[in-house]
Write a structure and sequence with these properties.
single chain, 204 residues, two-stranded antiparallel ribbon, elongated, binds protoporphyrin IX containing FE
Amino acid sequence: MPMIAGMSAADRQNIRHDEIPDSGRQFNYDGAQRGFHWTMAVFIIVAMMLGIYASFLPPGTSPRKELLDIHKSLGMTVLVLVPLRLAYRFVVGEPPYHAALSRLVHLGARLGHFGLYGLMLAVPISGYIYSAAGGYSLPWFGLFSWPRLLARNEALARFGEDIHFWVGWSFVALLCTHLAAVAWHVFAKRDEVMSRMLPRKQRR
Ligand code: HEM
């Protein structure tokens, strides 16, 4: 039986799938990776919806500020979680696919996941710059305020706002692509990709 625990991520990815006992477990993301994925998926999707909705409300009104405070709290939570998730991902690696994907599909998945991680950092960082340099509130669910590491600077705030807008919409687009890719695996390919991210009992 080939070793899984203790092997490097690259070695695990290179194992031929017929060399691995078919117990299933090692082909799935582990509990911590699934926990990161689904918790952050909820935080990110809710933060996106609140940010988009609040942007249509008149500036200076109380519902807009309250929704944006939750949006910022979720965004800062994501910003704290991403380095932890990336560190864990770096150490544990990606589980091998039970039935190998074609080179092109695997490359597409790699690039897509890389882009999602990049945007999970770029979107809250640009939002932080926008808020901190603009002198806006930086609350965390009403419990405390994040430190303002930037002096007030109108030009920097406008720059942060522009970047936040563009990377935010790029994130929405890449996320839609991610969901479309998952739907393609589930409904067209009917392969095991979705089950890799589900708790064991719910595997298809
Ligand atoms: C809510 C609907 C979602 C579904 C059904 C879903 C499904 C999946 C599945 C099945 C995988 C495994 C892909 C594979 O093994 O090749 C995956 C990976 C991933 N998903 Fe999602 N996802 C969702 C939302 C999100 C959101 C909101 C994000 C936020 C950015 C996200 C980020 C990622 C990342 C970064 C990976 C790669 C994990 C890694 O290899 O480290 N997903 N997703």
